[in-house]
Design a protein that fits this description.
Length: about 325
């Protein structure tokens, strides 16, 4: 039995992933045209540290940055509009894309404001605060937009119970298991990020670049740590409080336990995809729950509680199918 996705495009994805980048690009263009008479003949387009070292016509520069916003930021975030693409991928790309859009957009507007009524842009300095504000605003908009995305993938209902040889257990619901990088690994990521931020601040002689590393660190950590939630409704794997995977209990065909090596089996650690429909939360070597679904998807969840995850899913699905048959 199949229940097909009713949408090709996610409305929230279209708004945040397509309309927002276009609106920001258009705003930058409109302001450049409105302020053309108050801007120098040549505006700063590139900076060495905080000092300008390249200049161009204001309108030419505005069009270049507008195209960059649409192609780079919008190119990433537009993936969010594709309703049947993996939800976690759509959310991640939206966050990345809107962070880029916010950084470029706010920086462009702030730089133009600084150059208003100046005879020459030779003495203008890059507004470092604008990069920080733009990054934070873009990241926040990306998070908000990501929370509004919904999973419109095809859902296929399984018709038979899991094989009798698959593990079973007496489920205590809800089963909540946290998987992912250890605390030491998380601290390592933070330390590396701080080192990069400190180096950038030193080279630019500005404290503002440190803010640029905050969203990057949060995003990296979110792809290394997950929460697995299992109840009578199904299997829910989340990151940053949002669904990475969300499967109904009647989609599950069975779950087994196997041993995995993330680097060997999936080419790396964290959230991985190896071929169509073959996904993994591969955050540690050792036992993993291998879950299969009626639509052909497979999900591997590395955890020292793999037996409990697999046993709980099999018991729940068997109970559901038995109740349905009765």
């Amino acid at each position: 039995m199949k229940t097909r996705a009713s949408r090709t495009f996610d409305p929230a994805g279209v708004v945040f992933g397509v309309a927002v980048p276009l609106a920001v690009a258009a705003l930058c263009l409109v302001l450049a045209y409105l302020w053309q008479g108050r801007l120098p003949d040549q505006v700063a387009t590139h900076f060495s540290g905080t000092e300008p070292d390249d200049f161009s016509n204001p309108l030419s520069n505005a069009w270049t940055l507008a195209i960059a916003i649409v192609l780079v930021g919008g190119g990433c975030s537009a993936v969010a509009s594709l309703a049947r693409v993996l939800l976690i991928m759509r959310r991640t790309m939206l966050i990345i894309g809107l962070t880029v859009v916010g950084t470029i957009g706010v920086l462009q507007i702030a730089t133009l404001v600084r150059e208003l009524d100046m005879a020459t842009s030779q003495s203008v300095t890059i507004p470092g605060w604008a990069m920080a504000v733009g990054t934070v605003v873009g990241f926040a908009a990306g998070l908000f937009g990501a929370s509004k995305l919904r999973d419109h993938r095809e859902r296929v209902v399984a018709t038979s119970s899991p094989h009798a040889d698959l593990p079973r257990c007496n489920p205590e619901l809800p089963l909540v298991v946290r998987v992912g990088a250890s605390r030491a690994a998380g601290i390592t990521v933070v330390v590396i990020s701080l080192a990069g931020a400190a180096t950038t601040c030193y080279l630019t002689s500005s404290p503002w670049p440190i803010i640029l590393f905050v969203p990057l660190t949060i995003l990296i950590l979110s792809l290394l740590r997950f929460t697995v939630h299992i109840d009578s409704d199904g299997l829910y794997v989340s990151s940053l409080g949002m669904a990475a995977f969300d499967y109904d209990i009647d989609e599950i065909t069975g779950a087994s336990v196997r041993t995995v090596d993330p680097s060997k089996d999936f080419g790396g650690w964290g959230l991985r995809a190896k071929g169509r429909g073959n996904y993994a939360v591969a955050t540690e070597s050792g036992p993993a729950a291998f879950v299969t679904f009626a639509n052909g998807d497979r999900l591997t969840i590395g955890s020292d509680q793999a037996d409990a995850i697999a046993g709980t899913l099999n018991s729940l699905t068997a109970r559901t199918r038995s109740t349905t048959v009765d």
